Backbone:
């Protein structure tokens, strides 16, 4: 009987440990690379749905940004931009102004409160 309890505890511990490892694998850290004069940065932006995607990407329809693609699954945005026209800091601020938290800035509270209910993610 003791062996069965011990085996059950070991199985539960292994299952819990494997779940924890999967969560860690999903973490994506910020990165920046430059090629042919265009810099591409990726970083986390909190949000929920396709409406969030539209708002987040729309905040980057500015001079200097050539591409912005936010994933509803990973919550990571990839932004290609010309550093002579816009900085990564300004890109992150633009996203925060429309109400979305990112790795560097907390979203504007008024803008966040005006987001549709489905777009109001759990804030940290």
Residues:
């Amino acid at each position: 009987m003791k062996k069965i309890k011990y085996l059950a505890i070991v199985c539960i511990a292994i299952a819990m440990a494997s779940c924890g490892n999967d969560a860690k694998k999903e973490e994506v850290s910020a990165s920046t690379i430059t090629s042919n004069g265009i810099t591409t940065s990726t970083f986390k932006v909190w949000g929920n749905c396709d409406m969030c995607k539209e708002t987040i990407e729309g905040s980057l329809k500015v001079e200097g940004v050539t591409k912005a693609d936010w994933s509803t699954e990973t919550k990571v945005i990839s932004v290609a931009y010309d550093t002579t026209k816009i900085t990564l800091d300004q890109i992150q601020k633009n996203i925060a102004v429309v109400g979305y938290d990112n790795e560097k800035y907390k979203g504007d509270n008024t803008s966040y409160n005006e987001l549709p209910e489905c777009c109001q993610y759990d804030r940290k």
Residues 92 and 105 are 7 Å apart (CA to CA). The two ends are 45 Å apart (CA to CA). The first strand starts at residue 31 and ends at 35.
